Amino acid sequence: MALETELRGDTQLVLRRLLPAPPERVFAAHTEADLVRRWMVGSPGSEITHCEHDARPGGSFRMRWRGDFPAFEITGEYIALDPPHRIEHVERMHLPEFTTEDTHIVTTFTPEGQGTRMEMVMTFESAEAREAALSTGMLDGMEAC
Q1: Which helix (H) or strand (E) holds 94?
Q2: Alpha-carbon distance 36 to 117, whole Å?
Q3: Which of 44, 78, 101, 106 is 20 to 30 Å apart from 122, CA to CA?
Q4: Considering the entire predicted model, what is its pTM?
């Protein structure tokens, strides 16, 4: 299932993908560290070296990767969770050159056929912040996941 992308307005990026599992499993795969480690690897040759999730309102998460690119990490805080339908959180990418501004993300999981339609709406602080994030190659990594 290919990753569909849409630029919405000046500050949003919308990602959609149909996944071959029910919403309960897809939600768990986004919030349970042991499951996240299995699929959020990224490009070939990369690996997650640290992964922790405290999936509750006010809880935080941290993931770190290394590979044939400079090591980086993503940190954030959960705002709201409605299992297995919706996750709302804020995250930032910590890259060697810079750390992104906070990105507000709402991810929804909707049953579709035998699977789940995932939609992730990422709202960046500015058009420049969205462009900076896209310039990191993040969509390639997200497609590989």
Answers
A1: strand 86-94
A2: 18
A3: 44
A4: 0.93
Q: Provide the number of structural domains found in the chain.
A: 1
CATH number of the domain within which 95 lies: 3.30.530.20
Q: How far apart are CA 117 and CA 131, in angstroms?
A: 26
Element spanning 108, H or E:
strand 103-112
What domain range is 13 assigned to? Answer: 4-144
Q: Tokens 């560290």 appear where?
A: 33
Residue 113 tokens, joined? 């056929």
The pLDDT tens digits of the residues spanning 60-113 come to: 999 999 988 889 999 999 999 999 999 999 999 998 988 989 999 999 999 999
Distance CA(15)–CA(118), nearest Å, equals 8
- Encoded tokens for 68: 């044939």
φ/ψ of residue 92, rounded to 5: -140, 145
Contacts of 45 (CB under 8 A, 6+ apart): 67, 68
Phi then psi for residue 57, to 5 deg, are -55, 125
Round to whole Å and give the CA distance between 101 and 115. Answer: 33
For residue 8 the two structure tokens come to 């919405």
